Amino acid sequence: MTQLPNCPQCQSEFTYEDGESYVCPECGHEWAKQADTDAGEAAKVVTDAYGNVLQDGDSVTVIKDLKVKGSSAVVKVGTKVRNIRLVDGDHDIDCKIDGIGAMGLKSEFVKKA
Asked: Where are the transmembrane segments (predicted)?
């Protein structure tokens, strides 16, 4: 049996599920199930190799030569990448690199500029 959350308004433990929400029978308060899952997603923080927090639109610098899969091109150390976009997945960063094009980078190979 799964443990349902207590009511955020009156702290009652007698809550129940009703479709896509929880309901408290004591005070009548209703709240969305999504609120629980959104808190876990908001906690995901992307950091660079040195622990600096990255955000959409930041500029970063590559700290290691990176081979481009399917090509003989190499992203050289010191390459500055502007206007990054953070995404979910193995590669945390979507960006465009001059001379190479659009690609995904792992945050462990960049530092905030």
From this structure: none
**CA-closest candidate to residue 92, choices 78, 109, 69, 75:** 109
CATH topology of domain 57-110: SH3 type barrels. (2.30.30)
* pTM attached to this predicted model: 0.62
Q: Report angle CA 43, 61, 84 to the nearest 5 degrees.
A: 50
Q: How far apart are CA 32 and CA 26, in angstroms?
A: 17
* Among 90, 96, 95, residue whose Cα is nearest residue 108: 90
What is the CATH code for 1-38? 2.20.25.10
CA geometry: angle 97, 107, 44, nearest 5 deg? 130
pLDDT at residue 41, rounded to an integer: 52
In Å, how far are 19, 45, 83, 90, 104 from 86, measured between CA atoms?
32, 10, 10, 11, 10
User: Residue range 58-62: average pLDDT?
Assistant: 96
Name residue 102's beta-bridge partners. Answer: 96
